[in-house]
Amino acid sequence: MSGTEGMSGAGTGTGTGTGTGGGTGSRADDGPIRVLIADDQMMVREGFSVLLGAMPDIEVVGEAVNGREAIDRVRELSPDVVLMDIRMPELNGIEATREIVAANSVAKVLVLTTFDLDEYVYQALRAGASGFLLKDASARQLAEGVRVVASGEALLAPSVTKRLITEFSRLVQAPRLPPSAQAAYGDLTERETEVLVLIAQGLSNAEIAERLVVAESTIKTHVSRILVKLGLRDRTQAAVFAYEAKLVTPG
């Protein structure tokens, strides 16, 4: 799966994205981005720590060897970004992500995976992860991924979002939206619903603006309002919501 559409197109690489607009919860200060690395493999933790530690705007504040420890470290250290392995002992990365998000932590979760079409990646996104990276990401891709997620954006290019969600919404039976989500969806305006559908179809803000013949800044405003009304963290969760609300049919 590709990196950003602007960075590496549709070949092989990481699942990084351009962070195209509309994220919420961006960092309030200009200090170094605080990162927690959660992985049960010591070599992975040490390797990522060295790579990120060489970046002047990033600080590795801690490590965790399993999902339970990751939750404790997030509570203790308040990192901006958690690099979260999916497969870990005691508590896996999906459940750890779900608990971190449920606790309204400011930390954004960036899932680490070996395969870009790993079924568990989709589950992690549904749990609240802001994106994913392959473990063989380059130092530049890793650092840029951390920066994008820390800024409050989603680390998935539009084409990646569409491919990933289309693939796994075939495999995962989408649950009915809870009453609170149904009520929130009812608060969207007709234009906001239209924008939500286009997000789920994989269009960037610029492409949505062109499609609707409006300014890109207007689309960014719509995306922000959609996220606030639906109580979502970023456009990746918005795309998942649209599929599970059956506003978009995979394919």
UniProtKB/TrEMBL annotation:
<dbReference type="Pfam" id="PF00072">
    <property type="entry name" value="Response_reg"/>
</dbReference>
<protein>
    <submittedName>
        <fullName>Response regulator</fullName>
    </submittedName>
</protein>
<dbReference type="InterPro" id="IPR000792">
    <property type="entry name" value="Tscrpt_reg_LuxR_C"/>
</dbReference>
<feature type="domain" description="Response regulatory">
    <location>
        <begin position="34"/>
        <end position="150"/>
    </location>
</feature>
<feature type="domain" description="HTH luxR-type">
    <location>
        <begin position="181"/>
        <end position="246"/>
    </location>
</feature>
<dbReference type="InterPro" id="IPR058245">
    <property type="entry name" value="NreC/VraR/RcsB-like_REC"/>
</dbReference>
<feature type="compositionally biased region" description="Gly residues">
    <location>
        <begin position="1"/>
        <end position="25"/>
    </location>
</feature>
<keyword id="KW-0597">Phosphoprotein</keyword>
<dbReference type="InterPro" id="IPR039420">
    <property type="entry name" value="WalR-like"/>
</dbReference>
<dbReference type="InterPro" id="IPR001789">
    <property type="entry name" value="Sig_transdc_resp-reg_receiver"/>
</dbReference>
<keyword id="KW-0804">Transcription</keyword>
<dbReference type="Pfam" id="PF00196">
    <property type="entry name" value="GerE"/>
</dbReference>
<keyword id="KW-0238">DNA-binding</keyword>
<feature type="modified residue" description="4-aspartylphosphate">
    <location>
        <position position="85"/>
    </location>
</feature>
<dbReference type="InterPro" id="IPR011006">
    <property type="entry name" value="CheY-like_superfamily"/>
</dbReference>
<feature type="region of interest" description="Disordered">
    <location>
        <begin position="1"/>
        <end position="31"/>
    </location>
</feature>
<keyword id="KW-0805">Transcription regulation</keyword>
<dbReference type="InterPro" id="IPR016032">
    <property type="entry name" value="Sig_transdc_resp-reg_C-effctor"/>
</dbReference>
